[in-house]
Hints:
- The protein is mainly β.
- The chain folds into 3 domains: 78 residues, no CATH class; 64 residues, Antifreeze-like/N-acetylneuraminic acid synthase C-terminal domain (Type Iii Antifreeze Protein Isoform Hplc 12), CATH 3.90.1210; 52 residues, SH3 type barrels, CATH 2.30.30.760.
- The strands form 3 sheets. Strands 1, 2, 3, 4 and 5 form a 5-stranded antiparallel beta sheet that branches. Strands 8-9-10-11-12 form a 5-stranded mixed barrel. Strands 6-7 form a two-stranded antiparallel sheet.
- The longest helix is centred in the first third of the chain and has 15 residues.
Amino acid sequence: MPSRPDRPTAPRPLRLIARGVLLAALGLLAVPAGAQQPSGAVEARVLEFLHRQAAGLPGEVTIQVSPLDPNNQLPACAAIEPFLPAGTRAWGRISVGVRCDSPVTWTAYLQAQVAVVADYLVAARPLRAGQVLGPADLGQRRGDLTALPDNLLTDGTQAMGHHTRIAIAAGSPLRGDMLRVPHAVRQGQTVPVVSSGPGFRVASEGRAMNNAAPGESVRVRLANGQVVTGIAQAGGSVEVAF
């Protein structure tokens, strides 16, 4: 009986490589069975995540992440997914969640500190209630904004020409709620009105029926007697959306 020609076979190293590629594609080589989660991989993912979350913050951002317990009993994870608990932002001392969905589901939390060092405004001298702020009234300091009260002012244009709501001691950090923003629109003033909607934009004029700072709601009576409600703009106009 004629012998059957031998079927060509791939060299053994190539067969092993091909098998490894297939197993990797199936995710079977991603996590050795019973392996413990390395702490360094978790910290690196959390640090990367927080840097993305803090992008755009003013000043110099410094992030520190407390290490995951190196003696943890968590199974090694194929895909680590950091997240912030609801209502949390990358600011100050926070807890960051780490979720694993494969091959075993688990969740852990790491402590982190996000510091934002920047210049902020302070009162250069004692300020009385109702005082209009000028350059001589403003000073600057540098510090970690996350360790200071919220709504701090960081630029002179945010305070210049505004009235103080309360008396402010020299050296006190200036917050937005300490100042009264000048009205952009005053009651009885004739104002430009821009009405816009899908596919149209119409300019007209009307008379403001109340005072409003930029961003606040204002009612305007148009020339035809119609009353519309819009948003006061910094230049004194009113935007009405339909």
